[in-house]
Specification:
Shape: globular
Number of helices: 8
Radius of gyration: 21 Å
Helix content: 10-25%
Largest sheet: 8 strands, mixed
Structural class: alpha/beta
Order of helices and strands: EEEHHEEEEHEEEEEEEHEHEHEEHEHEE
Strand content: 25-35%
CATH architecture of the largest domain: 3-Layer(aba) Sandwich
Length: 368
Amino acid sequence: MFVRGGLPGEDVTVEVIEEKNDWRRGVVTEVHSPSADRVVPPCVHRLEGCGGCDWQHIELGAQLDAKVAIVSDALARTAKLSDAVVRPAGAVPPWGYRTTIRVVGDADGRAAYRAERSNDTVSALGCPVAHPALVELLDDIRISAGLEVALRVSVATGEMSAHWDRDAGEVTGLPEAVAVGRGAAVHEVVAGHRFRVSAQSFFQSGPAAAELVVATVRRLAPELDRARRVLDAYAGVGLFALAAVSPRSHVVLVEYSKSSVGDSRVNLAERNATMVPREVAHWKPLERQRFDVVIADPARTGLGKPGTRALVAARAPVLVLVSCDPASLARDVTLLSAAGYRHDGTEVLDLFPHTHHVETVTRFVLAD
């Protein structure tokens, strides 16, 4: 039974909302004996039903430990690794950390978030996890009802961008300095490196999150310092290729998103880099092309069989997998193990405090 809204050790009443042959999913409707880690959500919008921060009922100091336990459980259940090494590796500041948010226009044209598991809306004004510059922006803009808008701010430069479907509605009240439309981008600094990030490109929850995951990748793959050739799969805007890989290395980036490919070309312009604009599942190494390290940061669904098959073809002795879902991580561990890669430790990061989202970085080594 997977229970949403409950904490280990609590006595609760659960409503079953989904049932399969060997498992059920439920939601807590009443807490009879609360955990010592249960707190009242500090955000009024969460109390009103906002679905954005679904872990605000857990004391902040217990959240990372809970995520470590979830990852350990997933590896034990799915990957059959009951003794896997899983360690906490840090968290970003809990408030004002999100430099990219997605809001929707409510019935009054004000910025809102979706309610939990619903298309209903809850005000986003004063959002405590959004960067202060975005909070200020939310007060002024008006959005067509039901229109979703992605807003981003750069901590390094103060630049802002906004992206939405122009055919679906309008956004008014944006300051002239906010970049919109084709070519809209901001520039962020991570680990001393400057990145162009287009409005349509993926980026971490903020530069603090990007720096933490880069540092973790470098720690788990010290071979990056002396690697001759590195594969950066699902490369995005080139975060790892630029900030984690040695400038002495030749790095091959594989990425499908057009906006991210464009950003990577700009960000890696001064590096020995080859950009491959292709889905990872369709990529193959060139004949006699050998890699020392593979870094992969797939979407929430993970590598899957096609992605695993492509990465294994690189035959790198070290593979570092960045995952944002414990279940897909466990499935990928199983696939990589079958392909000859041994799990060599997972580190758990909290890049989204107050939410159930878990980021992990896992080291694999090719078995002899």
